[in-house]
Amino acid sequence: MDSTRTHSGTIEQILIAGPKGTPRAPVDSARAVAGMGLMGDRYFGQKPGRYAADRQVTLIEAEAVEAVRDGGVPFTAADARRNLVTRGVRLNELVGRTFRVGGVTLRGVELCHPCGHLAKLTYRGVTRDLKMRGGLRAEVLASGEIRVGDPLAENR
């Protein structure tokens, strides 16, 4: 990848995980707290373990969700179980990079590959349909507010 290239897009939707078994709820804004995640999210402040501390926010491309729907599956961003829905940026290219979302600094940690649990909750072919497009796990490095419509841009 060309190191002078910048990656930018926008936040199209913010989804907060409520109590276990409930669907993710869309919100207009969310407070991200360094080292903790999104306030109000079920995984906020999760201790290291099964969900590592550096997996505080998850992102998915709106384009990936739309591609699944275009294949005839009634799939939504909330079904994908991610927090931030982006448009106009290839999230896979942000692994290991620092970027800003609104007033928040994030670091891309690893790809969110679709798993068997997601297939149980949605449909069997989701792991195939979202292969290499399942999203990104990120760590919150600097606290701030994220709003729908905010820009997402890689730090230079």
Explain what this protein looks like in three dimensions.
- Helices cover 12% and strands 35% of the residues.
- The protein is built from 3 helices and 11 strands.
- Residues 1-5 have low confidence and may be disordered.
- It has a single domain (8-154), classed as PK beta-barrel domain-like (M1 Pyruvate Kinase, Domain 3, Beta Barrel), CATH 2.40.33.
- The chain has helices spanning 62-70, 116-121, 126-129; strands at 8-16, 25-27, 29-33, 37-38, 57-61, 84-87, 98-101, 104-111, 136-142, 144-147, 151-154.
- The longest helix has 9 residues, at 62-70.
- With 156 residues, it is mainly β.
- The strands form 2 sheets. Strands 1-6-5-9-8-7-11 form a 7-stranded mixed β-barrel. Strands 4-3-10 form a 3-stranded antiparallel sheet, with no helix packed on it.
Supply the key terms:
seven-stranded mixed beta barrel; mainly beta; M1 Pyruvate Kinase, Domain 3; disordered N terminus; 156 residues; three-stranded antiparallel sheet; single chain
Write the topology of this structure.
Layout: E1 8-16, E2 25-27, E3 29-33, E4 37-38, E5 57-61, H1 62-70, E6 84-87, E7 98-101, E8 104-111, H2 116-121, H3 126-129, E9 136-142, E10 144-147, E11 151-154
Parallel strand pairs: 5-6
Antiparallel strand pairs: 1-2, 1-6, 1-11, 3-4, 3-10, 5-9, 7-8, 7-11, 8-9
Portion in beta strands: 35-45%
User: What would the CATH topology be?
Assistant: M1 Pyruvate Kinase, Domain 3
Strand order of the largest sheet: 1-6-5-9-8-7-11
**Name given to the CATH architecture:** Beta Barrel
Question: Given the structure, what is the number of helices?
Answer: 3
**Looking at this structure, what is the CATH superfamily?**
PK beta-barrel domain-like
The overall pLDDT average reads 85
Termini distance?
Answer: 14 Å
Q: What is the CATH domain class?
A: Mainly Beta
Q: pLDDT below 50 for ≥5 consecutive residues: which ranges?
A: 1-5
